[in-house]
Design a protein that fits this description.
Elements: E1 6-14, E2 18-26, E3 31-32, E4 36-39, E5 43-50, E6 53-63, E7 70-79, E8 84-94, H1 105-112, H2 131-142, E9 146-148
Parallel strand pairs: 8-9
Antiparallel strand pairs: 1-2, 1-5, 2-3, 2-6, 4-5, 6-7, 7-8
């Protein structure tokens, strides 16, 4: 008996006051999963056809009225036909681009691929991360904490 592919949805948005990007990452293959884009350069969905299993879900969110205005959420999730369950989650809130450079390369690449005003950019879906980079990412996500720029040494 083989498992059936299931459809999972990510999304993106690049408007003046809100920027959003939600992508899936394969722990096993050590790379971002390429989905099918449905939408235009401003807003749309990323559709994935994947097998049930454990993945990392990345979400970048910017809203000009938040303090701090930018947030990256990294979640280890169990995806089944019935539900998507969060196992572990780490949230990074920040103001400055430089703050992100201390995190695993996957986080930096997601940040660099963030939507801009009315323009869509994506990560390199062909890039395979090393075992060491993969382990750093898994370690970060299992910490289950909120990291806020300016409060990291308190």
């Amino acid at each position: 008996m083989t498992e059936e592919l299931i459809e999972v949805e990510g999304k993106y948005r690049g408007t003046l006051s809100i920027r959003y990007l939600k992508l899936l990452y394969s722990i096993k293959n050590r790379k971002f999963i390429k989905g099918y884009l449905r939408g235009d350069r401003v807003e749309g969905k990323v559709l994935y056809r994947i097998y049930p299993g454990t993945y990392i879900m990345f979400e970048y969110f910017y809203w000009c009225k938040n303090d701090p205005p930018r947030k990256i959420t990294i979640s280890k999730v169990a995806i089944s036909k019935e539900e998507t369950k969060i196992i572990n989650q780490t949230i990074i809130k920040f103001y400055n681009d430089e703050f992100v450079k201390q995190f695993p390369q996957q986080v930096v690449d997601l940040f660099n691929a963030r939507p801009r005003y009315h323009s869509l950019r994506m990560v390199d879906f062909n890039k395979v991360y090393s075992d060491e980079e993969n382990q750093k990412l898994l370690q970060l996500v299992v910490e289950n904490k909120e990291i806020i720029e300016g409060e990291e040494h308190q």
